[in-house]
């Protein structure tokens, strides 16, 4: 007879698997932006994204409303890794009349209890941060704003559903006016429980409540949470799984008993998944009860969760004493700690074992004689404990059975979710403080429009000084004449050799120029390495190496012994008195070869060629890479009158009116000026924009005090600026939990290419992680990755803006030169940073539009490099020389 009754409550493994599949579908619906509204399991974002890292400290208040007891807690957290938490708490009654009265009365009562508690604790004068555990389904928009969706568990207070419960609490406190607190967070009890256990076990990523009600939460990947913007990191999701089945998806498994309990509940048809167990206040099998906990190991509960207890009379929830299901060996993933807070936590006496004597909870109902009652109590407690144990065992067994490849550990919360609420508040407090400190540091790297306009103004000033004969010497932006005065007219033709030295790669090129109808430029090139020891050895060795590469290239091209005109792209500041000469003023970009500064590099090259006696070349032109780039792009676009390099180094050139180039005789026409803007700031013009990180990078560079503008923009230095910011943040405990890795202390380890990768695609975070692992920061967290990305973004953005301010000064100079209201002009651009960084060009264009609104600037990326430009300049020079004959 009994079996007939219980038969429908027994579920097979297939049933349970099927329930789990149905459940997983509901979870996916809940996570989906378009399907959330119709999903029964609402998967509510909680805005809890971080877990305690042991640096939290301070006193925090916590309210815990919605379980068997309303509790107010004062939680003292001591940081600095000591991880000590002291708690004082007081339980207050929420009379049923208030549970079902008006919301105002309910919140007034809550604040009354709070005032009473703070009085007792002697903290009424303090404005402490507070975490509010409000264990009902809420739609949250941020950590401290949460709108009640619907009451459950017998609560029905009017005027609360649809309202922000933090607003209601703040209002009630304001109304009293005798104390003030800072409500930092409102959380669900499952979240509080996960946090409580997460404080001791960082693998704890799921919270489970099986008490008056039941629910679970877990840390979900942001990319799966469509209701919240952002793809990076994780956020805790309050599943509100109590409503599973409210759409009828459990109809085939529900029994008449379930339907009877539901029919008698305060919210028939709602929270059906909870209807398996009678609440303490109801006779067995009456409505609105909470189901036994669903054991699970993955974020997706296994099917057995609901009726698994059906095989025996309703069982109490698991005890945290349960041993971990399987000990995790290093090969298996770390055990997933699943915290279950069962209504009973050790701090307060276990709730009366409601199941058995639910008709009359022993504590309050009758006053049994002094002999029998304690015996009955012990028997009840024993039974209660046994039921706990049985429930826990069945739960764990189910988890093992249904998801055998997950290693799940159950952690029973001893301190209730109040501690968790305080932890969330402490973490939010820490994050807020850390965020403020990080933003304070990063703000120094953020430039306002006014500051950028000031950079532009100062650049214009230095440009004028560089052009003028009297002030040229003292100018930092040298505005070097290049003797490139004309552009190709299409009649150029012939084979030309070109060298391209000074960027990431040393290139030797053969450029075949055809004129007339077949007007075209054909190129062959080969890349050669310039070893560090050559860059910093003797000039003779360096130029012998260059000539060796030329010889190898000519052989490779089958042109051994050929004698061709050569264009030499030499991307360093050179003083020129004619096209075929280049007196090196100073090395930059890590080059330091001796015996070169002050020398004519064309001569150094010829000397080296003569030393080989293998071939001879006519060094016709020495050009800067900016000039070569302008010429390369100018071959296709005649509006191209500016060249820009943002690579290892940075620089720009443009066609200046001869009348303004006071270092060169003549006023007619134009001449290309190599600005060498990298040195802008070398006389302190940028000191008020330089940060401690810029100064650190400069001091450790091969040319301290030099190339200051370049060191805030170009690829050789951006990675180092980021590394120094990360070192500073780590030293302040704002990153990597303050743990510094030896590798991160290594200069040059954070390559600038990482900035481009980190900002490259949607999967940036995983890429950040792998880069951080490469840097020896194995245990970096999601938050760390997000922060590293933010630092990269800020540093790269500043570089692009500074570059934009410089370029705005150039194009406005040309516009003013020509007395134009509007100027349309093209800029030829090259350089690895500009080409590879996903946002650099966009920010540069934005800044340019903003700071030089009367100029329409087209930025054309050079595909052929400046070697082609050098060859074209050589071709023009040869044509002009021919023409003179
Ligand atoms: C490619 C040009 C070369 C220039 C380089 C700059 O052909 O002349 O020096 O770009 O970019 P980097 O290689 O330094 O990133
Ligand atoms: C050099 C310039 C060059 C720029 C880009 C700077 O360090 O001084 O001559 O144009 O780098 O390569």
TrEMBL record:
Biased amino acid composition, Low complexity: 320-334
Pathway terms, separated by semicolons: Carbohydrate degradation; glycolysis; D-glyceraldehyde 3-phosphate and glycerone phosphate from D-glucose: step 1/4; Carbohydrate metabolism; hexose metabolism
GO BP terms in the entry: glucose metabolic process; glycolytic process; intracellular glucose homeostasis
Molecular function GO terms recorded: ATP binding; D-glucose binding; fructokinase activity; glucokinase activity
Biological role: Catalyzes the phosphorylation of hexose, such as D-glucose and D-fructose, to hexose 6-phosphate (D-glucose 6-phosphate and D-fructose 6-phosphate, respectively). Mediates the initial step of glycolysis by catalyzing phosphorylation of D-glucose to D-glucose 6-phosphate. Plays a key role in maintaining the integrity of the outer mitochondrial membrane by preventing the release of apoptogenic molecules from the intermembrane space and subsequent apoptosis.
Family: Belongs to the hexokinase family.
Name of the featured protein: Hexokinase-2
